[in-house]
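User: Before I run my own analysis I want an independent prediction to cross-check against. Here's the chain; please return only the structure tokens and, at the end, one sentence I can use as a sanity check.
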Amino acid sequence: MTTKISLSEWVPGLDDSATLAEAYAKMPGDDAGVVPWYVRLLENPASHVALPGAIDLFGHDCIHILLGRGTLSQDEAFVLGVTMGTARRLQRWQQKLFGFAAQNFYRGPWRLSPGDRLLFDMAVEFAKHQRIKPLNEVPWRELRDEPLGRIREKVGIRTADLIKFYETERAIWPDSKASQRLPVEVRWDE
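Assistant: Structure tokens:
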């Protein structure tokens, strides 16, 4: 009998062969109802004031999987930064507004620390320079049966470049739990 791990302990790694559906099935999760109103206000595409890159929870979870990131605040900062960085109409003031709100108004696990905010900004720039397709526009449900490696290729995420970024992240924050569990190479699911 296998015990399901907690969401804070979950890390998907960078397996290329698993399908999105297989990887998603292993992700422990909370109901969308636990997401606070202030997060939904800026990050949910149904909000009238949502910022560029806004995406539904399923799509957001898929991006965690694609990037091989867990759900600690450092991981969230990277996932949010990459997602916003790929958005078509992101302007610098919107990036700054989000960073300010997430650091100063968000609460609990949604709040970004100053280090998380720096990582968020780094991830935005990483995504812009990578020329990744807008991740908030990807039809995630249609890709459920696709292998993760093929999805990464389709959207323009190069695993070698992710690993290189993660090396830099580990050098900046060597003692953080999120840094210590970042993928160092492509790992195949056991």
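Sanity check: Residues 40 and 126 are 25 Å apart (CA to CA).
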